[in-house]
Design a protein that fits this description.
- By secondary structure, the chain is α/β, with parallel strands linked by helices.
- Helix content is 28%, strand content 26%.
C-alpha cells in the first residue's frame, strides 16, 4: 500500500479515476453527496421514471453516511460510513449515469465491481471508528433532498482532506482480496 496520500478534488474526471489503484491513500476535497438505503431507492426510482436526480451524478461522489445530530457549535455530528453492501443493488445504475466515486466501508459485490470497471469509477473506504475525526474534515453541509428521511436525507457536503483508501479501482483492483493474498503469502 502506498504510504503517501494523493490529494484529489471533486468532481472526479476519468483521468483521475484511472490513475487510482487499490490500496492508495487519498485526501478528498470538494463537494460530496450523502445517500443511504432509502435515498438510493428514491434516486433509482427517479432515474427509472426519466426524472433528474436531485444532484448531478456525472463525476460526483456519494458518501454512504447517516450523520448523527450536530451539537451546538458543530457543523455536523459524527459522520462515520455505513456498510456499502446495503446499497449494492442500486449502485450499477448510478454508475451507468455517471457517478464516479463512492465512500463507505466493507466489500462490494461482483456486480458493483464489474460496473466500476465498465464505467471507470472508484470505491473509497474509510474507517467507521473515526466518525468524530471524519466530521472534522466536513466544512459545510446542507440537506438538498428527501428531508423527510431524517439522517438518510441527501446532503451536500464540502470536505477538505477527507481521508480514505481506494478499496476498488477501475481496473479490477480489490484491496480486500489483495490483503488476503498478501496475508496468505506471508504465512506460507
Amino acid at each position: 500500500m502506498d504510504e503517501t496520500p494523493v490529494a484529489i478534488t471533486t468532481p472526479l474526471d476519468d483521468e483521475v479515476v484511472s490513475a487510482l489503484r487499490a490500496g492508495t491513500r487519498v485526501l478528498i476535497s470538494g463537494t460530496i453527496y450523502t445517500a443511504r438505503d432509502a435515498a438510493h431507492k428514491r434516486l433509482i426510482a427517479a432515474l427509472e421514471n426519466g426524472e433528474s436526480p436531485p444532484f448531478p451524478l456525472a463525476g460526483n461522489v456519494i458518501y454512504y453516511v447517516g450523520p448523527s445530530p450536530k451539537q451546538p457549535g458543530q457543523i455536523i455530528g459524527s459522520a462515520g460510513p455505513t456498510t456499502s453492501s446495503r446499497v449494492d443493488p442500486y449502485t450499477p445504475l448510478l454508475l451507468e449515469h455517471g457517478l464516479k466515486g463512492m465512500i463507505g466501508k466493507g466489500k462490494r459485490n461482483a456486480a458493483v465491481r464489474e460496473a466500476m470497471q465498465k464505467h471507470n469509477a472508484v470505491y473509497f473506504v474509510t474507517v467507521g471508528g473515526a466518525a468524530a475525526l471524519i466530521a472534522e474534515r466536513i466544512k459545510a453541509v446542507k440537506v438538498i433532498a428527501y428531508d423527510d428521511l431524517g439522517t438518510e436525507a441527501i446532503r451536500e457536503m464540502m470536505v477538505e482532506d477527507f481521508p480514505a483508501v481506494v478499496g476498488n479501482d477501475a481496473h479490477g483492483g480489490d484491496l480486500y482480496e489483495d490483503g488476503k493474498k498478501a496475508y496468505q503469502h506471508e504465512r506460507n
